[in-house]
Amino acid sequence: MSKMDELKNKIRSTSGSSVHPELIDTSKEVQPNPKPKKKKFEELHSRDTVWIENELKKRLDKESAENGRGEKTRIINEALRRYFSTNN
After folding, report:
1. Most exposed of 4, 51, 67, 85 (fewest Cβ within 10 Å)?
2. Cα distances (angstroms) measured from residue 75 to each of 7, 26, 50
3. Which domain of life is it from (predicted)?
4. Phi and psi for 17 in degrees, rounded to 5?
5. What single string gives the DSSP state of each residue in 43-77?
6. What is the pTM (predicted TM-score) of this model?
7. Pair 60, 52: CB distance under 8 Å
């Protein structure tokens, strides 16, 4: 038997006995906490149609094209949050 095989056998024989069974309480089965279900995009957002000034639309389109998918939604939501936080 090679030294490598001896080492593998030694590791196998000690790995199962490294924890004393009397230290493990098996009287209660631990239930994992269920993760809250992540809400779908459609549950958190509503689709709407609005009129936007042409110059603002061009700027919005340019900005969102540079930063990828979902950018228009993020910009409009951020603008509305700022508007409502300063006007209420």
Report:
1. 51
2. 60, 53, 15
3. Bacteria
4. -105, 15
5. HH---------HHHHHHHHHHHHHH-TTHHHHHHH
6. 0.54
7. yes
